Amino acid sequence: MTGRRLLLPLFLSLALAACSDSGQQSAGGGAAGGAPERPPQPVSFVAMKKAEQPITAVLPGRASAFQSAEIRPRVTGEIKEIAFKQGSEVKAGDLLYKIEDSTYAAEVAQAEATVAKAQASIPSAQANLARYERLVNSGATQIEFENARVTLLQAEADVAQANAALKAAQINLELTEIRAPFDGVTSISNVSIGNIVTANQTNALTTLRRIDPIYIDLIDSSANLLELRSSLESGKLSGDPRKADIRLALEDGTEYPTTGKLDMADMSVSETTGTYQIRALFDNPRDIILPGMYVRATVTLGNLNGYLIPQRAATRNARGELSAKFITADNKVETRIFAKSSVSNNNWLVTEGINEGDRLIVDGFQWIGDGATVQPVEATVDERGFVVEAPKAEADKPAADDSAVEKAADKPADRP
């Protein structure tokens, strides 16, 4: 019984020692054969460079005709001819409509006859006045002389009145031909041949529009106007917005090939929307832009010295502040907040919080947090700010590594 008591503790101690050795071996084997630590995640970055960049504003707008006229008749009559092709271009002076003119031609003939009758009475009135002028001192009274002079003046007035009536009749005859007041494009005709039209009627016969050049009416907030004036007065913003180039994006997103110029800015602000209107002028030789078309205009307001942050590399926090992630000197991630930023084409422009050469993460930042260690890969961003392109040296590395792996795979394994 005593021997059994002595053997039991000895057995337990041996068992504990064996378990301890087994745990150590197991731990050692896990360290040797387990998965290695996860390597730093590669992220693309661009080096920050300070330079003078354009400050831009993207504004909504609509196109409107450079000139527009609703064509209406100025005399009454029947439409005898429609001389233009609807929706086509016409030149100034081209015939658009022809109104029946027989009545107006007769009025011209009648007025011409009245003029001839009035002119016929002048020679006799002149001769009568001359006769009384010779006899005024030898038997003719002064009253008879004055009456002869008044008769001549009345005859001359009758001629002038008849000529005025003739001119009015000729104008009415000319107005039976309705012509284009300027170069432009016609709309659909609202009347047909045989319709009766009246002088200065409410409904237009057609509408003529000149769309080359064409106006673009833009809308901006009064707050932006005040900020722009403040920047110009402080000297932070250089350039003259009145001479700025304006670029357009059409409804389908395509860029209009021609830049425009500022034509005017309204000197009042809407009481309901707090906005004011800007009008730009664009050449439109191919009639790509049509009146009423919606567009987005990028207006260059001036130039500012600062750093560009591509829009794809930045986000906004809950307070609306711009934030972006950078790589520190020890290849760790940090987030920076920028209280003030401006728009520069497809980028944000900041003037504070960045130093020359700082590394901005432009791709891969969505899955990493502050303090994480990363593997920096230098890259470039194209003009639109959408595509990140790795340099050729970096792009060639994977190909070399793949080739080495393939060669290692082709090499026969050493036999035991």
Secondary-structure map:
Blueprint: H1 2-33, E1 41-47, E2 51-71, E3 77-82, E4 89-90, E5 95-99, H2 102-135, H3 142-174, E6 177-179, E7 184-186, E8 196-197, E9 206-221, H4 222-234, E10 245-249, E11 260-265, E12 275-282, E13 294-310, E14 314-316, E15 322-327, E16 333-338, E17 342-344, E18 347-350, E19 359-363, E20 374-378, E21 380-381, E22 388-389, H5 392-410
Parallel strand pairs: 1-20
Antiparallel strand pairs: 1-19, 2-9, 2-13, 3-5, 3-8, 4-7, 5-6, 7-9, 9-12, 10-11, 10-13, 11-12, 13-18, 14-15, 15-16, 15-19, 17-18, 21-22
List its salient traits.
single chain; 416 residues; alpha+beta; conserved putative lor/sdh protein from methanococcus maripaludis s2 fold; Elongation Factor Tu (Ef-tu), domain 3; Helix Hairpins; 6-stranded mixed sheet; 5 helices; 22 strands; elongated
CATH topology call of the domain at 57-65 and 208-303? Elongation Factor Tu (Ef-tu), domain 3
Q: First CA to last CA: what distance?
A: 56 Å
Q: How much strand content do the residues show?
A: 25-35%
Q: Estimate the helix proportion, in percent.
A: 25-40%
How would you characterize the largest beta sheet? 6 strands, mixed
The overall average pLDDT, rounded, is 82
Describe the structure in your own words.
- The chain has 5 helices and 22 strands.
- A hairpin with a 5-residue loop joins strand 15 and strand 16.
- The relative contact order is 0.17.
- Among the domains are: 99 residues, Beta Barrel (conserved putative lor/sdh protein from methanococcus maripaludis s2 fold); 105 residues, Beta Barrel (Elongation Factor Tu (Ef-tu), domain 3), CATH 2.40.30.170; 75 residues, Helix Hairpins (Orthogonal Bundle).
- The protein is an alpha+beta fold.
- Strands 1, 14, 15, 16, 19 and 20 form a 6-stranded mixed β-sheet that branches. It has a 6-stranded antiparallel barrel with strand order 2-9-12-11-10-13.
- Helix content is 31%, strand content 33%.
- The protein is elongated.
